[in-house]
Amino acid sequence: MKSENIIIAGFGGQGILFAGKLLAYAAMVAGKEISWLPSYGPEMRGGTANCHVVISEEPVGSPIIVNPDVLISMNRPSLDKFENSVIEGGTIVVDKSLIDRKVTRTDVRVKYVEATKIAMELGNAALANMVMVGAFLKETGAFILDEIKDAIVKNIPKTKQALAEIDIKAMVAGYNA
Amino acid sequence: MKSENIIIAGFGGQGILFAGKLLAYAAMVAGKEISWLPSYGPEMRGGTANCHVVISEEPVGSPIIVNPDVLISMNRPSLDKFENSVIEGGTIVVDKSLIDRKVTRTDVRVKYVEATKIAMELGNAALANMVMVGAFLKETGAFILDEIKDAIVKNIPKTKQALAEIDIKAMVAGYNA
Amino acid sequence: MSEKVLMKGNEAIAEAAILAGCRYFFGYPITPQTEIAAYMAKKMPKIGGTFLQAESEVSAINMVYGAAGAGARVMTSSSSPGMSLKGEGISYIAGADLPCVIVNIVRGGPGLGGIQPAQSDYFQATKGGGHGDYHLLVLAPNSVQEMVSLTIDAFDLADKYRIPVMLLGDGTLGQMMEPVEFSNDNISHVYEKPWATVGTQKKRKHNIINTLYMSPEELEYTIIERQKKYNSIVQNEIRCETSYLEDAEYVLSAYGTSSRIVETAVHQLRKEGYKAGIIRPITLWPFPSHIYKKAAEHAKAFLSVEMSMGQMVEDIMLAVNGKAPVHFFGRTGGVIPTPAEIVSKVKDIAGGNASE
Amino acid sequence: MSEKVLMKGNEAIAEAAILAGCRYFFGYPITPQTEIAAYMAKKMPKIGGTFLQAESEVSAINMVYGAAGAGARVMTSSSSPGMSLKGEGISYIAGADLPCVIVNIVRGGPGLGGIQPAQSDYFQATKGGGHGDYHLLVLAPNSVQEMVSLTIDAFDLADKYRIPVMLLGDGTLGQMMEPVEFSNDNISHVYEKPWATVGTQKKRKHNIINTLYMSPEELEYTIIERQKKYNSIVQNEIRCETSYLEDAEYVLSAYGTSSRIVETAVHQLRKEGYKAGIIRPITLWPFPSHIYKKAAEHAKAFLSVEMSMGQMVEDIMLAVNGKAPVHFFGRTGGVIPTPAEIVSKVKDIAGGNASE
Amino acid sequence: MPKVNFDSERCKGCELCISVCPKKIIKIADDKINSKGYRPAEVLEQDKCIGCRFCATICPDVVITIEK
Amino acid sequence: MPKVNFDSERCKGCELCISVCPKKIIKIADDKINSKGYRPAEVLEQDKCIGCRFCATICPDVVITIEK
Amino acid sequence: MSKLYERPKSLCDVPMHYCPGCTHGIAHRLIAEVMDELGIEGETVGVAPVGCAVFAYDYFECDMQEAAHGRAPAVATGIKRVIPDRIVFTYQGDGDLAAIGTAETVHAAARGENITVIFINNAIYGMTGGQMAPTSLPGQFTQTSPYGRDVKKQGYPVRISEMLSTLDGPSYIERVSLDSVPNINNAKKAIKKAFQKQIDKKGFSLVEVLSTCPTNWGLSPVESMKWLKDNMIPYYPLGVFKDVD
Amino acid sequence: MSKLYERPKSLCDVPMHYCPGCTHGIAHRLIAEVMDELGIEGETVGVAPVGCAVFAYDYFECDMQEAAHGRAPAVATGIKRVIPDRIVFTYQGDGDLAAIGTAETVHAAARGENITVIFINNAIYGMTGGQMAPTSLPGQFTQTSPYGRDVKKQGYPVRISEMLSTLDGPSYIERVSLDSVPNINNAKKAIKKAFQKQIDKKGFSLVEVLSTCPTNWGLSPVESMKWLKDNMIPYYPLGVFKDVD
Ligand SMILES: Cc1ncc(C[n+]2csc(CCOP(=O)(O)OP(=O)(O)O)c2C)c(N)n1
Ligand SMILES: Cc1ncc(C[n+]2csc(CCOP(=O)(O)OP(=O)(O)O)c2C)c(N)n1
Ligand code: SF4
Ligand code: SF4
Ligand code: SF4
Ligand code: SF4
Ligand code: SF4
Ligand code: SF4
Ligand SMILES: [Mg+2]
Ligand SMILES: [Mg+2]
To answer: Which CATH number fits domain D5-236: 3.40.50.10490, 3.30.300.30, 3.80.30.20, 3.40.50.970?
Structure first.
């Protein structure tokens, strides 16, 4: 696992914050220093939601990411907003089924995934966040697949572990997409 | 009329503040610089009331009198409280009908008046304040009698000028007492 | 020049406000400023104005917000605990750039405290009792006559800068009577208020009085714009009175009631041969820092005299910035310092016996 | 040592309070601190504690007053506009010498402002948003872990000194998650409260919780007595973290969220060869003035970095007292300064291009 | 026989007791003034008192106690 | 004949209009998504519309206008 | 000799600061008598208001807290939640309870908070020198209604007992008066019942006590009693408004 | 072709930020329609609350002020006193009006302040993420009543219309609902009548509008309408509570 500054962004309701929390949790378990910072407030309903996840070998200074290493973008407004802030050589993961344009920058790696489509095929559009997490893993190698699987299991209440399995399935689908 | 720092003190309801206002007004009309400062708040009902009147040739600095030239005392607690603060050679005017003790200091001039008794003889104990003002005038020569008469007339509403006459009568009675 | 009348400070404020064109007063009773409302209650109905006793200070300050937004010259008054309750509303008024006049006739605190005069709300007035980055323009009269002139100026300044102006008095100033003249000279200007919410008449886009900005950048922008206004107030509106400052070695400083006591003390000190001088800030915000800076060039020491545990002393220290020692003497809780105490404090300082 | 859990700052405060023995929480919802109440609402009923949503912040702080007077460990939390409404109640609590913990998760102001993180309530917290002479003990965590430890300490300090303690955070700290441990080491003391009003059982004279003193001398006496307590807090409870201070020419200073950003900036500056250091006050009142005084002996300049228009900078200036220039850099209204902006500001200062 | 007792130092001369006494035996002293400056109420014809307690019930200053 | 017109960009797909249409002719589009991410309501069988205005009355987002 | 009437034990043996003939003193005494009779002095915590009765903390032998103006029900709530088995009461004037404290009053009542409120309605702000209260009568002259309360501009009096009785929280609400000996005796019964409700854990109880303010009404104490009877009682009818078990 | 239904002119032609299916949008539209029909848009000043409807200032074409949380009636009073011949209304949620703003509400009503209050009762705090409101139903699950509102500890719901109707100030108080087309049509009539009362200078008027918050109720918009009908209306009966001329 590497040190990363990750921004995950999309609509409220897409599970953006949960996806971020999984990464933060997995990194914590892996012994990293981490911070997770959500955007908050009413704009979460309807508007744009995003979260900043800092994973580091050293204690985290600023939890606010100005220039992410990785952008996971799940809607058009968020791509518009954050595309240019990604560092040179960084990575952008794009939900192709919801974003009707290409990344214009040429100095970053881009991974397009039909996340929402894949999720719908798995029976629920709300799984798109997991698909994106899978794609991100594959693309960046930031985590081992099992670390995230574990994180999913741990972050879903015991009574709802059926959901965990579906989440893992979606994540793996994204990984393989 | 001389410069004076005057404290008038007694029970709430004895017309202490009005008496002070008369002196302040008269001095103002006589071209002096003046200030009038009442004690205020709930202690006025039942408790002790007093006011500080500064009459000066120069603009008034502190309106709070620490050591009065004159103390006009209309009850026992106020005499107890202020007696020792009067300057050496100052004056204390005492309502003898309400205060059952003598002034103990020997370095001040003292005038005892049966103010409340005289007032009751005039038909109303509430005129005692005017009697005291008269006695004060006589004792200190701070004002000409007419200045105060004028002040009384000016500080009583036009519709109640009958009261002014009674007040003046009480004041003169004090002057002559 | 008109006739002199004998008037309480509180009443003088009320009369001056009416003279300045204030026709709306919203308040809630509290000692020692009840005379302001009592005066308004009597006068306003006679001149077509509105006096309304609100159910609380919170409500009163929000009525002020509404009336100011509708373009009126409007005032409220209270004393310390009541002023704390107005904190949120004041922050809103500042954030909406609305003009109004707020009177605080300070009494002893904290808590219910006492009803005797104090100056322990200086911080609250000048640094912001409410939340967020804002300032009030704070005026501190020290006589009944000045309560008149500063009240009138307060309304003009409020309208000129679209800023809430606070008149900071204390129980002594509110309750004392002094001769006062109301001249018609300083009657105030009329300001156009095209931003006021009085109905569009369908002739313009709707006006909005508001303090909410969901985008931080937008909110920051409004704050920075407001800061420019504050800067121009600092440039143009500082008021201060000094005496005996030319050769002063000991610079005493006080505002409001305590400045009168300091005056008496300084006369005494001069008589005794001490080179004492006075700086009396009239605007507490903006603070007359440059006067202190200048005085610091020759002063041996400064002394802040306050009816508090020491609040303005910090602004003096900030102004003097280490150029000279800044001392403090204060009485609080309604106790008023005496000239003698001040004289003796200065002698201690002069004799090197005072710790800073 | 217990396990690390991933937790929001707001939730960490709530859990820490419970650990510290807090069994009473009174609050009113406001972003960005609603998670504190939500957590309390879930947990308190399970451990025999009380969570009560009051009808307003005014009511909540007065419930705190009552509960604290009855001897409980009690907490309330809010954010900026709500904190302004608590001003009067806080002044009462201070005046009655009652212990309690008050959390302010600051957002942009003035007025309704915005809901994004800010530090523009520093003045309100440290100089007194309420009326009268009083202080809060103000703690400023800069991580979720510290939110835990300082919350626990807050309850102890409150009881030890019978003083209201404020935990001053901001939206970032409240909303972010970090790994945090709850160890049982720092579980707090139990303080006897013979002054609490819990019924006399006819075994003692009645206890009175009160802030009113009709005699100014009596009120002043209580204030001076309280000042002694404040002095002892200044003596014993100042907390501050410094780094790279030994050889620092440029001393950056910040608290809370902005201190983390300053940390990142200072790493950068050091990399680039600038001798930059950090002073991070953890207690904002009492302010660690002596640390600044000491640093001023070798520092070329100070820089206060705040999420406001500049408030703590005044306390730094008071501490440095003219020994070195004190600069300011801030963003406000919910905008958070970036490390790059800070680096460039320091370079400006170093290059002599910054006006003080 | 009932005996009413007035603690004159506590009395404020409000006359409420007078207004309710069915026997009309309470009066304001016209020769006394207490240390607070009030002229206190007093009962002159003790023997007429019927111990109805009306006076004590209405007295706001707990001036009156009654024994039998 | 009444004509209902849906401003799909304003529609939030809440389905309230669907729940009140007496003719059951409003549906959520299953092939469209507007720029806010919502799947908008639409009327397919215009000619069945009786112009009752129920849909417009309940629509919280003033998506619907009706002409005749 | 036996005592026909003596000072209640729960009332401190000190002079009270109220004006001559002010009914605050009567109300204090009744509460103290009730505490004595119920034997709860040692179990009780009282909350004093801001108003003329602010010094109530010096007059009751039980533990006392002095609350900010209008906040007594919130303060009492804080206390009661900490010591639910003790008795907590507030003593509040009409400015305190019905103006600045409206929200605290309504919500303590709505919560059915198990406290007892003694509400002294004297149709004026006594302590601050006679300003209009929410309960001042139409046409009443006060410092802030110098031409008589004009209901069109200054609003109509608020009937607190009636208003609170629309809520589900209160267990007991009664309005009584102190203008005459029989009414004072009734008032005591109501106060006792209100405390009993609390002891029985029935929830919020309130007794509205029509009272006088001779000083600010500008009437003698005896005239004040008559004014109360002739003017206040018709506007504020006496009786039980709520009594739920 | 003629218009059977079109957007009211008094409603700004911008998308509203409310969640899908939130009835705030309906209420806004009704007010705008009423302003159109009465022809008062140019004469009206609206006051927005703090709550989800805070941005109401962006949605009405008339002049608008945004008030502090709960203070809209005080702000409206300030405005109305300055421009008594204009129309002033507030738009407030249940947290705003019935919790923090209780005193302002009661006293504007008691004063008979000649303003119109539109009171959106959705039994929850929408904007802050679903906390319990004073109007949340017994047993209702919210963020701050996670085990269901326990009336014994958290109090009973407040029926504002009933409570205010005990006062002499209000000229008109009605409770309506937005759960169905007929009820929406009634709601509009009530709102229109409330404005008309103000135009006729009859004094304070208030319409309590039972509303939904699908987001925080955790229900779909359609389910929410049903929940309102099945749960809220029984507790908050619809109808006219006061209508004085
Ligand atoms: C926040 C605040 N506002 C105002 C006051 C001033 N004040 C003290 S008592 C009082 C009113 C008292 O009237 P009431 O409650 O009717 O009691 P009464 O004196 O008539 O018994 C007021 C307004 C205060 N102390 N605090
Ligand atoms: C003084 C203050 N306290 C709290 C808040 C936070 N706050 C914003 S909206 C709101 C409640 C909104 O609920 P409601 O009034 O019912 O409106 P809704 O969102 O349900 O329409 C609260 C508590 C605030 N902005 N100001
Ligand atoms: S007990 Fe009755 S009869 Fe005796 S003095 Fe008192 S009131 Fe009169
Ligand atoms: S009622 Fe009491 S205080 Fe009043 S006159 Fe009689 S004894 Fe004195
Ligand atoms: S107008 Fe009536 S019939 Fe036509 S679409 Fe709308 S609801 Fe259906
Ligand atoms: S009611 Fe309006 S917003 Fe909802 S689905 Fe129908 S058209 Fe769309
Ligand atoms: S002012 Fe009125 S209420 Fe207060 S003590 Fe005097 S008479 Fe009683
Ligand atoms: S949170 Fe509730 S009240 Fe607010 S907009 Fe969404 S659905 Fe409507
Ligand atoms: Mg009263
Ligand atoms: Mg709501």
So the answer is: 3.40.50.970
- The CATH number given to whatever domain includes residue G186 is 3.40.50.970
H131 contacts in chain D (CB < 8 Å): 29, 34, 37-38, 53
Contact assessment for residue D132 and residue C113, using Cβ atoms and an 8 Å cutoff: yes
Nearest CA in chain E to B98: E37
Cβ-contact B142, B69 below 8 angstroms:
no
Interface present between D and A (3 or more CB pairs within 8 Å) = yes
Tens digits of residue pLDDT in A32-86:
999 999 988 764 455 678 999 999 999 999 999 999 999 999 999 899 999 999 9
Q: Identify which of C138, C147, C139 has the alpha carbon closest to the alpha carbon of residue C173.
A: C147
Count of alpha carbons within 13 angstroms of residue G92, beta-carbon side: 33
Instruction: Determine the residue among G137, G156, G173 to mutate to test chain H binding: the one whose Cβ has the most chain H Cβ atoms within 10 Å.
Output: G156
Domain assignment of residue H19, yes or no: no
**Gap from CA of A163 to ligand 10 centroid (Å):** 32
Ligand 5, atom 7, lies closest to the CA of F21
Cα(B15) to centroid of ligand 9, in Å? 25
In this model, does residue B32 exceed pLDDT 80? yes
Q: Which atom belonging to ligand 5 lies closest to the Cα atom of F54? A: 7
Give the residue whose CA is nearest to atom 4 of ligand 3.
E49
CB G51 within 8 A of CB G95: yes
The ipTM of this complex is 0.97
Q: Give dist(CA F43, CA F56) in Å, integer.
A: 13
Pocket test for ligand 1, best of C30, C59, C104, C116 (most atoms within 8 A of CB): C30
Partners of H105 on chain D (C-beta within 8 Å) are: none
The domain in which residue G210 lies consists of 24-243
D and F touch with 3+ CB pairs <8 Å, answer: no
pTM here is 0.98
Q: Where in chain C is the domain with CATH 3.40.50.970?
A: 5-236
The position carrying tokens 């009006």 is H97
Q: Which atom of ligand 8 is nearest to the CA of H122?
A: 3
Smallest Cα distance from B146 to chain E, Å? 32
* Whole-number Å distance between alpha carbons of A32 and A35: 10
Chain A: closest CA distance from residue C214 (Å): 8
Q: For the segment A118-137, what is each residue's pLDDT rounded down to a tens digit?
A: 999 999 989 999 999 999 99
Check: CB of residue B64 under 8 Å from CB of residue B85.
Answer: no
Rounded distance, CA C44 to CA C33, Å? 17
Distance of CA D330 to the CA centre of its chain: 19
Q: Which fold has domain B3-176?
A: Pyruvate-ferredoxin Oxidoreductase; domain 3 (3.40.920)
Cα–Cα–Cα angle for G70, G76, G77, rounded to 5 degrees: 110
Q: C144: pLDDT confidence band, cut at 50, 70 and 90?
A: very high
Contact H199/D at CB under 8 A? no
How far is B137 from B174, CA to CA, in rounded Å? Answer: 9
Distance, in Å, from the CA atom of C136 to the CA atom of C133, rounded to the nearest integer, reads: 11
Q: Which CATH class is domain D240-350?
A: alpha beta
**Would you call A46 and H127 a contact, using CB atoms and an 8 Å cutoff?**
no
Q: Could you give the number of structural domains in chain H? A: 1
Residue extent(s) of CATH 3.40.50.920 domains in chain D: 240-350
Structural fold of domain F3-67: Alpha-Beta Plaits (3.30.70)
The rounded mean pLDDT for chain A is: 92
Backbone angles phi, psi at E18, to 5 degrees: -60, -40
Domain boundaries, chain B: 3-176
pLDDT in tens, D66-104: 999 999 999 999 999 999 999 999 999 999 999 999 999
Cα of B40 to ligand 4 centre, how many Å?
26
Q: Which residue of H has its CA nearest to A41?
A: H128
